[in-house]
What we know:
This protein is of the alpha/beta class. The chain has helices spanning about 65-80, 95-105, 120-150, 160-165, 185-190, 195-215, 235-255, 275-295, 310, 320-340, 345-355, 360-365, 370-385, 390-405; strands at about 20, 30-35, 55, 85-90, 110-115, 175-180, 220-225, 230-235, 260-265, 300. It has 3 domains: about 5-125, Udp-n-acetylmuramoylalanyl-d-glutamate--2,6- Diaminopimelate Ligase, Chain: A, domain 1 (3-Layer(aba) Sandwich); about 155-310, Alpha-Beta Plaits, CATH 3.30.70.270; about 320-405, PucR C-terminal helix-turn-helix domain (Arc Repressor Mutant, subunit A, Orthogonal Bundle), CATH 1.10.10. The two termini are about 40 Å apart. This is Transcriptional regulator, PucR family.
Amino acid sequence: MSILVKDILKLDTLKDMVLVGGSAGLEKCIEWIYVSECLEDPLEGIKWLQGGEIVIITGVGIKSDIGVLTKLIEEISKKSGVGLIVNVGKYIKKIPERAVEIADKLEIPLFALPWEVRLVEVSKQISNAIILARIEEKFMNDFLNNILFAQADLGVNVKEKANYFRYNLQGKCCICILQINGLKEFAQSKALEDEISITKIKVTLRKLVQDILEKYSLKVPIIDNEEEIIFLNRAEENSMYRLNRALQEIQELVSKRMAGISINVGIGNGYEDLGFMKESFNEAKIVIESLKFDGGRQAIRKYNDIGIYSLILNVNNKSILENYCKQVIGPIIEKSKNNKDVNYIKILDMYLNENCNITTTAEKLLIHRNTLTYRIKKIEELLNCSLHNFEECFNIKMALYINKIL
């Protein structure tokens, strides 16, 4: 679990610390803490930054020199530091407005920490938070990777071990997959096409997901895999209700903060035995696949809600599906390919979706009712069927589903 800059505001020793600038950078990940003091040249102290550090200064070498403080913020930004904590009171009485402006511009969170707060306690608590977060993240990553992708024995005490980190895995659990759509395009729009930048976006997304889930009292084991965020959640009714609300908020917030990115959600069935989480994972994957064919964006679906797709997508022999599709609707597939003006597949699909109602289908297709009637008769001729026969309509609808997948 990564610790973000905003997370340090929750620490006991920093309860009196105030954010004065750079709020846009609060989602940055903290790799370590760095106390920088140099009497001769205050800028000398930060030349060893490697990226990801939050810097603390007392201002002993700066005092009232505004220019040095603003330069310090600029250098922290250049070194990929993630924030600056200024111990105000003795040497720096107040953080100047110019420094706040620079922090806002460069998105470097700038904090004012009262002089009375002991820096040794601050550095100790932030360091401990980072270390504990890394230990927890490693354990839960290994745990979730093992149950989903490995053959390793989970061990009898795995639920007790998870409980140590306050993860409740009692009762039925299920796997939830968040498919990130448009990630590469978003990165390109921000001129962030290198692997490190894309990884940072993924970390930010995962942390956003974690924060919202915890807001709804859902502390879950979570990992990311390619363009997916995967987590395990309890499947009892109250937990699933809160999960649905959290997922809706995640979708809304991601769309608002990251224009162009959307989130599809697939949820597998719940099982009491954690050994069956692979089944739940595969079910969630099938849900994600079904959303691609169903035109869903920003959708939240459970495995039990996808109907016929769960059957079709579990057929491994695709030639069986191809043969069925050709046998039932092959003639209009070919006809639609050779006719640029009339898409018989689209017409038939819409007609069946509208329960064979000529009027509503014509309205949705934006064509005249008589034109639609003529084309429906043409389809019946091509397929040698009657669209007033329930069984034939069922077979055709099945073939249309398969055609979407193929």
